[in-house]
Design brief:
Length: 342
């Protein structure tokens, strides 16, 4: 069995607005599932500490960080039409970022084989100078930059399989040739970014791969696109570490999207990414919780990912097959291969 770490702190529950889709019951459902299925005792906990101002400022403007802190100090409020804060949200977001940094360090340094950060608020929509889409700070990007600076890694990959494009992560990393950002997401859809021809700018040109998915793409389409485009692109980049922005909202029963993955599809995807990490970067892989708003999907989805990380050959799918007919992905796949010369 692999030595798998996780991050969790009670402060993540105090960032909460009960009527909002991204609320504390998401983590409660995951933790209950992990305990009920006897997964939690098999894991090693990494305590979360608050990220430092320097760690945040590698990805976010100081005035934006100060604004979030001040808003929370005075009780919280809405930062945009979707993104709320409470008096605890700044502290929660700091601990989320710091926890992912330290979990990543433990994996790269060989103290753990791999890990999953059960953190809130999510991060992949937060752009350098503003909150967006439920997200305050770009946790995955912050961890990637920390691994570059503190662990002296030359090549890091951040892969985002949340159903929504990780526009914030892309905006932060757009010109960085050392961090490869790849995303598969429903398109056109919120937040409106992630077109195939968004490939990075300046020195980072070619270090971004977007796979814009049609509605109802489903398991078979995802498998083809990952096997024939995503995995080859990652092999070519040869990262020393893979960070995963893990959203479970591409499932066919998620209330906020319409892609059509099943829990079995998620199992295949996560097992494939873990195997790829074993192949190309000594197994250095860390998952970071992003979206997923159907608790009956989210909890077993995360549980199955932990099973894959641990090397446990078990699987749980209480929901089953998607009834939708999948679109053909041949044209999309051909265009991806042409643009990225795969």
């Amino acid at each position: 069995m692999k030595k798998t770490g996780y991050v969790y702190e009670d402060i993540f529950m105090q960032h909460d607005l009960p009527d909002h889709p991204e609320n504390a019951t998401r983590l409660s459902a995951i933790l209950n599932y992990l305990n009920e299925c006897d997964i939690m005792p098999k894991l090693s906990r990494i305590p979360a500490r608050p990220a430092t101002p320097n760690e945040l400022q590698r990805c976010h403007h100081p005035l934006y960080i100060e604004m979030v802190e001040d808003t929370c100090r005075f009780g919280g409020g809405m930062l945009d039409g979707d993104t709320y804060t409470t008096e605890y949200s700044f502290d929660a977001a700091l601990h989320a970022a710091g926890g992912v940094i330290d979990l990543t360090k433990a994996v790269v340094n060989g103290e753990l084989d791999n890990g999953f950060a059960l953190v809130r608020p999510p991060g992949h929509h937060a752009v350098p100078s503003s909150a967006m889409g439920f997200c305050l700070f770009g946790t995955a990007a912050i961890a990637a930059r920390a691994a570059r600076r503190d662990l002296k890694l030359d090549r890091i990959a951040v892969l985002d399989f949340d159903v929504h494009h990780g526009n914030g992560t892309q905006a932060i990393l757009n010109e960085d040739p050392h961090i490869f950002f790849a995303s598969s997401h429903q398109y056109p859809f919120y937040p409106g970014t992630g077109a195939l021809r968004e490939i990075g700018r300046g020195p980072g040109e070619g270090a971004i791969l977007n796979i814009p998915l049609s509605v109802m793409t489903g398991d078979d389409g995802i498998k083809r696109l990952y096997c024939e485009a995503m995995f080859p692109a990652l092999r070519r980049f040869e990262p020393q570490l893979i960070l995963i922005s893990a959203g479970y909202d591409a499932h066919w029963q998620d209330p906020l999207a319409n892609i059509g993955l099943t829990l079995n599809g998620y199992r295949w995807l996560c097992e494939g990414l873990i195997a790829l990490a074993e192949e190309i970067c000594n197994g250095n892989i860390v998952f970071i919780l992003e979206g997923g708003y159907n608790l009956d999907v989210l909890a077993p989805g995360v549980g199955n990912t932990f099973r894959a990380l641990l090397g446990i050959n078990e699987f749980d799918d209480p929901i089953g097959k998607c009834p939708w007919k999948e679109p053909d992905v041949n044209d999309l796949l051909s265009e991806i291969k042409r643009v990225h010369r795969l």
